[in-house]
Amino acid sequence: MLTVGSARSVMPSVPLRAGHGPFGVVLALAAVLRVVTMLGYRPAQLYWGDSFSYLHLAAHPEPSTGFRPPGYPLLLALLRPFHSIELVVAVQHAMGLAVGVLIYALLRRAALPAWAATLAAVPGLFDASFLRLEHAVLSDMLLIFLVVAALAVITWRPVVSPRAAVAAGLLLGWAGLTRTVAVPLLGLFVLYLVARRSGWRPVVALALAGVLPLAAYAAWYHAHHGRFALSGSDGVALWARTMTFADCAVIRPPAAEARLCPNGTVVDAASEYVWAPGSAINLLPGGREANNDLARSFALRAIAAQPLDYLADVARDTALTFAWTPVPHPARVTPAFGFARGAWGLPAYPLVEQVRRDYDPDLRGLRSVEPYASFLIAYQYPAYLRGPYIAAILLLGGAGALLGRRPAALPWLTAVALLVVPVAVLDFDHRYVLPVIPVACLAAGLGMRPNPGKRRWQVVRWPAGRSE
């Protein structure tokens, strides 16, 4: 007979070949843009402070006491046998395309029309900032790929199997070892499974698979540096965050920590306190690394004494995301529109020569190549997702999550965490906003999915021998 019964919200599937032509065209155009980027800027964008340290760690693995955990050096080590920086950025460009495919596939599986799923993938595929990010020897593109892949695995089916939970946990563990700001995402995913009553097996599988890589690295760190940790600079980063508001007359720190009070050095962004020669942390004996624990203790004490000041500064810096015109923060950086003409040589430092010997004998500085560079220079101005659009995408995903479209909740919370956590533990950076965009687009798309409703008609067969 026909009755009205409760039915679980499911992720309806779509035939694999149903109307994917437009997305195929979009993906092909995005691939062409990445080829143009590789032709226009050769061999890759290298940053002195980060890129060469990552490449050195790939050739000489060891737990870093700085801001560079081992997740990205692991990828570089896997590619090291090819001795090619150009291959590294080619793989990262492929990751950018893969992220677009994952977003599209998830949204089509959620019964969104092809045009809507394609639209959600467009920002990550076509924003010029992503082209530059993928073309740089930096950890951010790997982080984006791992987080989106983890979301894809955990939301692909309405019932999360232990096997899927293990895969998602391993991806999140690698993400946490790529950028430590991703470590809280593991707890977020676990809470999501608990909230949706997925059963104890997927929850335990996800938690163990995510924690094991982190614990293994912490043990390796302990073997080298004498303490269990994922980073030797987390306390310094949080201390720098507090320098924008700390008032030691309110905090009243003990004598040892009082040496870290504001000392009159003023810079234009919290992160600059890490590097400013006159900042308190750099005047202590032993420098930053030797005083990381002391800096963390001071920072936690400052936040506890001035919680509203801390939250206000985090909110103020996070709000820079939503400005129409990109705000330089700090003032010395180029916040957007970084494609330019020219040649940029490598510094004559011993580390550069060592990386050249160990990783890529043809390593050289970046140079622009015409006519491709001129095209990208012109392209980057219209192909930029302005801050108000990012706000609108986040609001759309949040509205979908609040309106009961449960699949949107996890990507939306993930996007918010990726936006706020870096600011809360150090500072705002336009580069740190980029991982938010694909995840927020996925959340917005899932927030728009057709609502299957909580009740539907279904056929119920009475047990044999029973009559109405």
From TrEMBL:
One GO process term, biological-process aspect: lipopolysaccharide biosynthetic process
Main location: membrane
Compartment(s) of residence: Cell membrane
Protein name, as recorded: Dolichyl-phosphate-mannose-protein mannosyltransferase
Signal peptide: none
Coiled coil region boundaries: none
UniProt GO molecular function: pentosyltransferase activity
Organism of provenance: Spongiactinospora rosea
Membrane-related topology note: Multi-pass membrane protein
InterPro entries, sorted: LipidA_mod_glycosyltrf_83 (IPR050297)
Keywords, comma-separated and alphabetical: Cell membrane, Glycosyltransferase, Membrane, Transferase, Transmembrane, Transmembrane helix
Chain ranges passing through the membrane: 20-41, 87-106, 142-159, 171-195, 202-223, 383-403, 410-426, 432-448
Record-level GO cellular component terms: plasma membrane
